[in-house]
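FAQ: What does a ligand-bound record look like?

Like this one, built around alpha-D-galactopyranose:
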Amino acid sequence: MTIHVRAPGRVNLIGDHTDYTGGMVLPMTIDRWTEIRGIPAVTVSLKSDDEPQLAELPLEIDDPHSVEPHWARYVAGVVAEMQPPVGITGTVVTDIPIGAGLSSSAALELAVALALGFDGDPLSLAQLCRRAEIRASGVPCGIMDQLIVAAGRAGHALLIDCGNVTLEPVRIPDDVEIVVQFVAHRALASSAYARRVAECSTAEAEIGPLRTATLPDTLSITDETIRSRAQHVINENQRVREFADAVNGGELREAGLLMIASHASLRDLYLTSTPVMDAAVEQLTALPGVYGARMTGGGFGGCVVALTRPGALADGWVVRAVDGAHRVA
Ligand code: GLA
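The answer part, i.e. the structure of the complex:
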């Protein structure tokens, strides 16, 4: 009996730092995958080409966060959440760059869950893997990464309302390219991310859910940092809706301008960009054929994403949306 599963990475086109307040996001899967092949076993033993040490785990795990080597924590998180009756001995192979902000960890979690026999709908799979990620990393992440990796659809991005968890496919037009450029490995991202999540909770304690709050509501927030965070989220939710409309209507210039505005907001109000990412976005948007560009994902390093006319950029990866995580055998 052979197990073979694959889970893609993702890039977020617009809507960052909105998911954990039930906001709007518009990510797509990318044509790079993490694959696991193996056979059923009494424990979990996975070897990765990218890691010197195996992930060797029993089927009962209390604290995934204390597991070594570090990469095995994501495997342990899934095992702890699933409590599978049967383990696996096998190999992990990936062409998703690790630690580059393209959800290599979500892809690993989903691949592990499927390899261990998860049998349920994409939303339940995503929710399980989100809990696994939080237990593994200690970072209070939202649902975006796991949900797009689970529910992605070839040729489409997904407009996701993270509040009531509705998904709407947005077809990527034939006359554009989505180009990802790696800028830098992510640094100090976990603590800064957790602080942003806490700041949003503070804002919500003052003005109610950010998902329904308006800009005028934010004016009553006295702390400038908290007010800025709230304003980013409220504006970003609106930009995501407008971006989806623009792409659906073939208004690519408008879509590009929304990406540029999103980047400016993450840079100035949410403070998750870095000077190197700002420079990359500035250089990209000055080039002919580039509609827009922005940092993508959690920030503090990682990648920038650009929406361009086909062939406009010589550097970077042209990414294509593929189907979400699935069993191959
Ligand atoms: C990380 C998290 C996601 C999301 C993004 C920012 O990728 O895992 O849940 O919050 O950052 O949009």
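Follow-up question: can I read anything off the structure? Yes, for example: The mean pLDDT is 97.
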